[in-house]
Amino acid sequence: MSTDEQVLDSPEGWVADHIRRYVATGGVEGHEWQPGVFTLLLTTRGRRSGKLRRTALIYGRDGDDYLVVASQGGAPQHPSWYLNLRDEPEAQVQVGAEAFTVRARTAEPAERARMWPTMTAIWPAYNEYQSKTDREIPVVVLQRR
Questions:
Q1: Domains, in order of start, for the chain
Q2: So what's the pLDDT on residue 11?
Q3: Which of 42, 97, 117, 125 is deepest in the core (most CB within 10 A)?
């Protein structure tokens, strides 16, 4: 990913505001979104548009890896960022002030079973989101390159 390309932020009002504050302050504002709940910024390449897309996601850790959940609030379809990662698994991440490249993969079933409680301990609503949809909500592993 070229760092000189324009990045389109998530269009949702409060999410876009969160991202702007996060970027402007180098993560000083926004990294800890709520007490004990931390977010990272994920930049993917649009699978159809080819444009860079950035969104803020709650994350957890599994060793050196970062974990994010493709919940979309329990919607019946996967979020766009997840579909983008399936087509192009290399992405950019900003955690606080630190930015780096990752390779994304969907957790295998046994991994997901182990990782899901880690993520629901951080954001218990993921269990509610899972109960609202027939799809299995993916846990995505972001491995630093």
A1: 7-144 (2.30.110.10)
A2: 65
A3: 42
Distance CA 95, CA 97 (A): 6
Tokens encoding 38: 């931390």
The amino acid at residue 113 is: A
Strand-pair partners of 44: 53
Determine the pLDDT at residue 30. Answer: 94
What does the block give as tokens for 110? 């046994």
CB-based burial, 49-83: b 16+ in 10 Å, e otherwise: eeebbbbbbbbbebeebbbbbbbbebeeebbbbbe
* Measured distance CA(24)–CA(20) in Å, rounded: 6
Contact between 142 and 65 under an 8 Å Cβ cutoff? The reply is yes
pTM, two decimal places: 0.93
Checking if the pLDDT of 2 tops 70, the result is no
